[in-house]
């Protein structure tokens, strides 16, 4: 601590080099911070309280396969199940979304009478809830979706069918707010049923069933009971928590866990190379100065401490700036389109912050250790002869 002022002064003596080094460390740690925050949220985060009581049932083979609608009543009869809501993905095309991907958003048919029982965390004014339930051709949009598309209550929305052989002609009756989803469109599933009946189809199907259970402890038991009940049926099921169901969509993108770890490893290796090269250059230019310090009574241990301290100061400055940038970028991702629901709660958690701060210190110390050791143990005469 006696030489803290000297350490700071020497760390910033070459301002251009220090600024470039701090900037490169900041950008690298920003990327590393965002990746680690995403990894933590996806694979070590906890489900939001609103999701802890919900399980999702889909076809065992793939979510693209439908299940008979009567599964709903059999699931509702299981102990621990409070309510069940049927979902059906509609797909379709809104305006010119083939050319403008900002026009794309999820569209689901749901049981309007049951939806708000299963999803009490979807905040909708009572009068809008009633209007959504009464009108079979109504639509309910998330606040973010309504804002981005410039849609308001009473507007007409037409979705051209591509999976189903008909179009949706809907009127916006409700706009909801939710912490986990605000980018979707919902409409009464009765619309689908009536449209299919008009075309000669009298058998109703469902894409998924979402069940509200009594306690979080009931989730694994209910999921197992549902799958056992339909194990020998023509359409077997796969049931999991809503949180796990959301993560399952990442499997379509490949091994996300391995990809994130690989990128983090590449970024770490790059940071070590940049910091190591910078510190080696800095120490090599100061071998003569080190010799003078040793003639003044500085021991090799003191010299190593000074050089390591300078490197640690630079890495901590870069790390601090990188954390600020990462926190801002995480905020942007949190308020952007939801790739999976976990991105809606994306933050730099304390474990991630602790790892990044520790990593900053490790980068500073490890990159300077070898050059500092060599400089500190260079004989005084040889150091003073150095002309760099």
Report on this model:
- This protein is α+β, with helices and mostly antiparallel strands and 388 residues long.
- It has two domains: 4-46 and 254-385, no CATH class; 66-234, no CATH class.
- It has helices at 4-11, 15-43, 71-76, 112-118, 126-134, 143-149, 189-198, 218-229, 242-248, 256-284, 287-295, 300-334, 350-376, 380-385, and strands at 54-59, 67-68, 81-89, 107-110, 138-142, 156-159, 168-176, 185-188, 205-206, 208-213, 237-241.
- The strands form two sheets. Strands 6-7-5-8-4-3-10-1-11 form a nine-stranded mixed β-sheet. It has a two-stranded antiparallel sheet with strand order 2-9.
- β6 and β7 (168-176) form a beta hairpin.
- α2 packs antiparallel against α10 (256-284) and α10 runs parallel beside α13 (350-376).
- The longest helix is centred in the C-terminal third of the chain and has 35 residues, at 300-334.
- The model has no long low-confidence stretch (mean pLDDT 85).
Largest sheet: 9 strands, mixed
The domain tally reads 2
- Structural class, from secondary structure content? alpha+beta
Q: Which regions are unreliable across 5 or more consecutive residues at pLDDT < 50?
A: none
Distance between the termini: 29 Å
Query: Strand tally, please?
Result: 11
What's the SSE blueprint?
Blueprint (H helix, E strand, L loop, with lengths): L3 H8 L3 H29 L10 E6 L7 E2 L2 H6 L4 E9 L17 E4 L1 H7 L7 H9 L3 E5 H7 L6 E4 L8 E9 L8 E4 H10 L6 E2 L1 E6 L4 H12 L7 E5 H7 L7 H29 L2 H9 L4 H35 L15 H27 L3 H6 L3
Parallel strand pairs: 4-8, 5-7
Antiparallel strand pairs: 1-10, 1-11, 2-9, 3-4, 3-10, 5-8, 6-7
Helix pairs in contact: 1-12, 2-10, 2-12, 2-13, 10-13, 12-13
């Amino acid at each position: 601590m006696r030489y803290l002022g000297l350490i700071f002064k020497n760390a910033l003596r070459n301002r251009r080099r220090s600024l470039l080094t701090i900037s490169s460390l900041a950008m690298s740690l920003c990327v590393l911070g965002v990746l680690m925050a995403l990894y933590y949220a996806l694979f070590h985060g906890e489900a939001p309280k609103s999701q802890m009581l919900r399980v999702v049932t889909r076809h065992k083979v793939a979510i693209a396969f439908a299940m008979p609608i009567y599964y709903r009543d059999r699931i509702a009869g299981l102990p621990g199940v409070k309510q069940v809501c049927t979902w059906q993905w509609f797909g379709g095309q809104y305006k010119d979304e083939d050319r403008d991907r900002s026009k794309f958003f999820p569209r689901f048919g749901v049981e309007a009478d049951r939806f708000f029982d299963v999803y009490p965390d979807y905040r909708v004014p009572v009068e809008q809830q009633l209007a959504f339930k009464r009108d079979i051709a109504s639509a309910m949009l998330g606040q973010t979706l309504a804002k981005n598309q410039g849609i308001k209550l009473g507007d007409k929305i037409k979705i051209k069918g591509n999976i189903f052989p008909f179009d949706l002609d809907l009127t916006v009756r409700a706009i909801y707010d939710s912490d986990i989803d605000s980018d979707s469109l919902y409409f009464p599933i009765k619309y689908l049923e009536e449209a299919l009946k008009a075309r000669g189809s009298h058998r109703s199907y469902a894409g998924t069933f979402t069940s509200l259970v009594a306690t979080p402890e009931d989730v694994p038991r209910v999921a197992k009971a549902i799958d056992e009940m339909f194990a020998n049926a023509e359409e077997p099921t796969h049931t999991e928590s809503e949180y796990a169901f959301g993560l399952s969509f990442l499997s379509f993108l490949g091994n996300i866990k391995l990809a994130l770890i690989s990128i983090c490893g590449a970024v770490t290796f790059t940071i070590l190379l940049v910091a190591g090269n910078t510190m080696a250059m800095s120490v090599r230019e100061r071998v003569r100065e080190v010799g003078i310090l040793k003639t003044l009574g500085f021991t090799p241990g003191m010299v190593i401490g000074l050089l390591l301290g300078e490197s640690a100061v630079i890495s901590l400055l870069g790390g601090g700036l990188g954390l600020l940038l990462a926190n801002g970028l995480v905020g942007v991702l949190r308020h952007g389109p939801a790739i999976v629901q976990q991105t809606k709660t994306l933050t730099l958690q304390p474990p991630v912050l602790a790892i990044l701060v520790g990593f900053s210190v490790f980068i500073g110390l490890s990159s300077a250790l070898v050059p500092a050791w060599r400089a500190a143990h260079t004989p005084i005469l040889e150091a003073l002869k150095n002309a760099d």
